[in-house]
């Protein structure tokens, strides 16, 4: 196995020497140059696995180097060395395509983690391509051959090679969590935790404790230390769904934790360093919430380094047959009709429906239709489609109804599990369903 090589671009000899020694101790051969011109020459002469560049160089800006590397050597991760506290420059570098950044004075432990992740990006394990393919195929909302989904797949692949915060926008039911999971799965943090949290589902009085943890005795009911979601996701990815639902006082605390990469548990005296990649999402218009003062502009600026917009299903109707077949196959695996097939007329009917609830609604419609099906053919008349019109209020009401039904179902299942002390067999019996069906519902609703 060949030794990894790194290119260091910095006009301070002391910094170059420090980085060279650190990398050498990690088994990485390092070459230092002091300006952009020399960097361009060396990049053209030999292959590197990592580039570390200062932001300000004698003959130009390090961000220009980031853009050059992204265009000419797209497989080479480049990390920026920024002045302490200069978040604007760091965000600009991430937007330009930098893998990550480290601030001066360089924290060697932070640098080592960054380098390890970058090397994993440049030299993924031999088996990883097949693993990524299998994972990608298992996430139904990301299936599709339409032009828009081909672009989304390419963007997800590109985002997985970066550590930049990602903001996923799109209507409810478009697969925002699954897109976040794909970014995680295909990136250097794939072996570390992926923690997803719905910010709108946490009671406000518990939100700080859930995100940052708490110390024993810090409030009534705190009978032991509790590790927050940031610490649980340490080394991996924290997905903050429905981030627009965070109250303003929590937005301030979240911004500080993201910028400082530190958290302070409720009742704690010391801040704890955390290394997480932040991916956030909401179906609301964050830009409008910033204008109205309901969402902090500085937090929006920090989490929205790169936006991944997911299209509604009505804008990718060519993908409906593929998605529908995926769901039918999954239902069959969980004890449904193993031979059920959609007829051409049924597919045509599905394509003409606007799906206000998007892919989640498609799944629910097919599941209900299959349950009542007596034959192997799912005809157009067998599809239990809600009546619809072009009225946007009707669309929004239908969407909210789907969300409400899912919420009621989730609460009923959790209640049954709690009453049976999380004995799944007993809970299934209490709910009047098979254990297999309960397992499927738990997976679908994300209940662990």
Layout of secondary structure:
Blueprint: E1 5-9, H1 13-25, E2 29-33, H2 36-45, E3 50-54, E4 56-57, E5 60-61, H3 62-72, E6 78-82, H4 87-96, E7 100-103, H5 108-122, H6 128-138, H7 147-160, E8 166-169, H8 176-185, E9 194-198, H9 204-212, H10 229-232, E10 237-241, H11 248-260, E11 262-263, E12 272-273, E13 277-282, H12 286-292, H13 297-303, E14 306-309, H14 320-333, E15 341-342, H15 344-352, H16 358-371, E16 377-378, H17 392-419, H18 424-431, H19 435-445
Parallel strand pairs: 1-2, 1-3, 3-6, 6-7, 8-13, 8-14, 9-10, 10-13, 15-16
Antiparallel strand pairs: 4-5, 11-12
Helix pairs in contact: 7-8, 14-16, 17-18, 18-19
Describe what this molecule looks like in 3D:
With about 450 residues, the protein is α/β, with parallel strands linked by helices. Helix content is about 50%, strand content about 15%. The chain contains 19 helices and 16 strands. It has helices spanning about 15-25, 35-45, 60-70, 85-95, 110-120, 130-140, 145-160, 175-185, 205-210, 230, 250-260, 285-290, 295-305, 320-335, 345-350, 360-370, 390-420, 425-430, 435-445; strands at about 5-10, 30-35, 50-55, 55, 60, 80, 100-105, 165-170, 195-200, 235-240, 260-265, 270-275, 275-280, 305-310, 340, 375-380. The strands form five sheets. Strands 2-1-3-6-7 form a five-stranded parallel beta sheet, with helices on both faces. Strands 9-10-13-8-14 form a five-stranded parallel beta sheet. A two-stranded antiparallel ribbon has the order 4-5. α1 links the parallel β1 and β2 (about 30-35). α7 packs across α8, α17 crosses α18 and α18 (about 425-430) crosses α19 (about 435-445). The model is unreliable at about 125-135 and about 135-140 (pLDDT under 50).
